[in-house]
Write a structure and sequence with these properties.
The protein is an alpha+beta fold. Among the domains are: 2-157, no CATH class; 609-758, Alpha Horseshoe (Leucine-rich Repeat Variant), CATH 1.25.10. The chain is built from 38 helices and 9 strands. The protein has a 5-stranded antiparallel β-sheet with strand order 8-7-6-5-9. A hairpin with a 2-residue loop joins β5 and β6 (62-69). α5 crosses α8, α21 (454-467) runs parallel beside α23 (493-506) and α29 runs parallel beside α30. The longest helix has 40 residues, at 200-239. The relative contact order is 0.04. ARM repeats lie at residues 230-270, 272-315, 314-356, 356-398, 398-441, 479-521, 521-563, 637-679. Its main location: membrane. Pfam families: Arm. It is found in: Cell membrane.
Length: 826
């Protein structure tokens, strides 16, 4: 019998080379395979098989032989011989039912063969089909020697497999949908062939289970709702009972019912039940009653209908009362329920305030459970936001001290975030600011600027910016200043805006902070920030103001000025002078460009135009020292404007205008243009006006100097010194033009002979706050950055429109433009 299996040609019962003699005499043979390279048969197994009359079949790698008669012995082979490719198992089976069932893969291989049944031709008459031989060397490996670790099946295993395969599809579906109906220990075999592809029954199993559970839940839901509806009237009576034991049992029963959604809805739909629970909390001193009742209210607070029911039943005062409980679970239920009310129920904030909730919540800040503290601080933020009275109550309860302690003591991100939000709200309160700064709030907030949580860093920066105008005299901020300089490199607009504003405020009239910022590379970082910001005035304004502070009135100021020049900062700042620029920004930029320190504007867009003129003309005065610059100034035909400024009521404006004219007169062309304007006459009139309220000796000396100057020859001017000989007699040699504006009082506070300039709506600022540094609101020692709308990047303020404007910004007409910049809850 010849047959093909796995592209190999086999012969059973024929004459192999090694056993030809035996086969001819005994009329039995072996299984041989054809060797295409050597053109000969090779023996595979030495099992004696009858030569004639047998039937051969193969399934996958198994060869099955049955029947047959030997020529010599006339012996029939009554049993079935099974030979597999692993050549390990040889079994004797009494009938077809005993044969081992091949796997699905083996069956697939079998049915893919062109001829899967072969015999000697006696029984079926079928002829085997000879395959093509490739002759590859690797095909010499015996198919029967591929796996030496194959284990055969026992009779019991074969019986078990047969039983499993006889299971019907309906049984498998039943096992997938209703496994609980099967007897314990019975497993239904899967027909899955590829682990990556589920069978149809397996795909049906999960959705069918979901559907079954949904139906079961629906049935149970209705049962729970019916049970609760019938039980609620009785439970209300029990909750109102005089016996506290009965009340306690009823409260616990209601709490158990509230854990199921259906009965929970039934409870919240009963105002009488909610009111009974609130009364139980208010009147009972029993711990179990309180726990059951407040636990039920906590469950109800997760639904809007439940929140409304609690609010209408007067539950907030009862819950606030529980904030004094020493029991942890009661505290948790109470604060969580109040938190849900504050978040989602209108009117809850006022009710909590009226019930004294703020004071009790501040007292809870002394606890050490971080998750509990996170809920408490979030409640405080909700209550304090936009409510000045709440901020003052928190201050009176020592809230800032506890909040700063939390920021310094814990590292739980959610707690730090919620606490920083409370501090941010409090930091816009003029009463809370000093308290937070005094408690070490600046240093505590600075500890978290390197935190990986972006929302925490942003809240800390907003709070620091709000506090910075009250911390201009605080020492020990070196690490904060260094962190701020590093933060300037951030790509987040809000972060950079805050960092620049904080640096601007902290360097106001604080020489130590100025030196520190310069030493850590703050000047370079600020110039890069201005370049990167482009036309974002919310960034460029505080950055330029910070540069203005760093380039004047401290030991490192000259180094800072050089750093600005070396980093091409002057060119960048000059470009920013072009419209559209708001006047506070123009004022700061002219100050940096000229290198002079001037008095800051006290209000945001309420900057006085006289200060803009003074700073701009002062910058031109410094630039006019160079002959090239003088030629450019003359070409602009501005000498008549300088002459008109000599008649201004502000003494400093008169001074800077005279200074520019003095420098321009150093050239013949300039002198001629000035002469054409009759400046000598105007100057004389100005000088006489300046001497109106001066002593008689001053008037006499001024008259003599004026007379001499009018008849003085042109060669008496000393261009190197930068001023006339007459002015040298008035100012000491070391004052010259570099110090003319820094030493004198600011323009609006001049009282040296001219008419003191007063403008309604602006307070007087002490002379020690001069130099265009950021001063305080109303004459205090602080920063006017608490009143600059441009720094608020939220975009809510209608004034924050940075769109291109064709015209120069209109000078402020309303003296009451004091919209708070920092003093806004962000």
């Amino acid at each position: 019998c010849m047959f093909v299996m796995s592209d190999r040609l086999y012969i059973i019962g024929g004459a192999g080379k090694t056993s030809e003699r035996d086969k001819s005499t005994t009329s039995v043979g072996d299984i041989d395979v054809w060797d295409g390279n050597r053109f000969e048969w090779r023996n595979v197994t030495e099992m004696h098989i009858p030569r004639h009359g047998h039937s051969v079949a193969y399934l996958g790698t198994q060869i099955l032989i049955t029947g047959g008669v030997t020529t010599t012995y006339r012996r029939a082979l009554s049993n079935t011989e099974c030979f597999c490719s692993q050549r390990v198992s040889q079994g004797h089976y009494q009938g077809p039912g005993d044969l081992p069932m091949p796997s699905a893969k083996e069956q697939t291989i079998m049915w893919q063969q062109n001829s899967y049944m072969g015999d000697s031709g006696i029984h079926s008459g079928a002829a085997t089909q000879v395959p093509s031989l490739t002759g590859k060397e690797d095909e010499e490996m015996d198919l029967f020697d591929l796996d030496q670790g194959y284990q055969g099946f026992t009779q019991d295993q074969v019986d078990e497999m047969n039983n499993q395969l006889n299971q019907t599809r309906s049984q498998r579906v039943r096992a997938a949908m209703f496994p609980e109906t099967l007897e314990e220990g019975i497993e239904i075999p899967s027909t899955q062939f590829d682990p990556s592809h589920q069978t149809a029954v397996q795909r049906l199993a999960e959705p069918s289970q979901m559907l079954k559970h949904a139906v079961v839940n629906l049935i149970n839901y209705q049962d729970d709702a019916d049970l609760a509806t019938r039980a609620i009237p009785e439970l209300i009576k029990l909750l109102n009972d005089e016996d506290q034991v009965v009340v306690s049992q009823a409260a616990m029963m209601v709490h158990q019912l509230s854990k199921k959604e259906a009965s929970r809805h039934a409870i919240m739909n009963s105002p009488q039940m909610v009111a009974a629970l609130v009364r139980a909390i208010s009147n009972s001193n029993d711990l179990e009653t309180t726990k059951g009742a407040v636990g039920t209210l906590h469950k109800l607070s997760h639904h809007r209908q439940g929140l409304l029911a609690i609010f209408k039943s007067g539950g907030i005062p009862a819950l606030v009362k529980l904030l004094s409980s020493p029991v942890e679970s009661v505290l948790f239920y109470a604060i969580t329920t109040l938190h849900n009310l504050l978040l989602h129920q209108d009117g809850s904030k006022m009710a909590v305030r009226l019930a004294g909730g703020l004071q009790k919540m501040v007292a809870l800040l002394q606890r050490n459970n971080v998750k509990f503290l996170a809920i408490v601080t979030d409640c405080l933020q909700i209550l304090a936001y936009g409510n000045q009275e709440s901020k003052l109550i928190i201050l009176a309860s020592q809230g800032p001290i506890e909040l700063v302690r939390i920021m310094r003591s814990y590292d739980y991100e959610k707690l730090l975030w919620t606490t920083s939000r409370v501090l941010k709200v409090l930091s816009v309160c003029s009463s809370n600011k000093p308290a937070i700064v005094e408690a070490g709030g600046m240093q505590a907030l600075a500890m978290h600027l390197g935190n990986p949580s972006q929302r925490l860093v942003q809240n800390c920066l907003w709070t620091l910016r709000n506090l910075s105008d009250a911390a201009t005299k605080v020492d020990g901020l070196e690490s904060l200043l260094q962190s701020l300089v590093q933060v300037l490199a951030s790509s987040d607009v809000n972060v950079v805006t805050c960092a620049a504003g904080i640096l601007s405020n902290l360097t106001c009239n604080n020489q130590r902070n100025k030196v520190t910022v310069c030493q850590v590379g703050g000047v370079d970082a600020l110039v890069r920030t201005i370049v990167s910001a482009g036309d974002r005035e919310e960034i460029t304004e505080p950055a330029v103001c910070a540069l203005r502070h760093l380039t004047s009135r401290h030991v490192e100021s000259e180094m800072a000025q050089n750093a600005v020049r070396l980093n091409y900062g002057v060119q960048v700042i000059v470009k920013l002078l072009n419209p559209p620029s708001r006047w506070p920004l123009v004022k700061a930029r002219t100050s940096v460009a000229s290198g002079a320190s001037q008095q800051p504007g006290t209000y945001a867009d309420g900057v006085r135009m006289e200060e803009i003129v003074e700073g701009t003309v002062g910058a031109l005065h410094i630039l006019a020292r160079e002959s090239h610059n003088r030629a450019i100034i003359r070409q602009q035909m501005v000498i008549p404007i300088f002459v008109q400024l000599l008649f201004n009521d502000i003494e400093n404006i008169q001074r800077v205008a005279a200074g520019v004219l003095c420098e321009l007169a150093a050239d013949k062309e300039g002198a001629e243009m000035i002469e054409q304007e009759g400046v000598a006459t105007y100057a004389a009139a100005v000088l006489f006006r300046m001497s109106e309220d001066k002593p008689q000796d001053y008037k006499k000396r001024l008259s003599m100097e004026l007379t001499n100057s009018l008849f003085r020859e042109e060669n008496l001017w000393n261009p190197d010194l930068g001023m006339g000989a007459d002015l040298q007699d008035i100012l000491s040699p070391d004052q010259a033009y570099d110090n003319m504006y820094a030493q004198g009082p600011p323009s609006v506070h001049s009282s040296h002979g001219g008419r003191p300039y007063q403008q309604q709506g602006y307070d007087q600022i002490p002379i020690d706050m001069q130099g265009l540094e950021i001063g305080s609101h109303g004459g205090g020692n602080g920063s006017t950055y608490s009143a600059i709308d441009a720094m608020d990047v939220t975009g809510a303020d209608p004034d924050l429109n940075f769109d291109t404007i064709d015209q120069l910004p209109t000078p402020p007409q309303d003296n009451n433009q004091v919209a708070a910049w920092y003093d806004t809850d962000l």
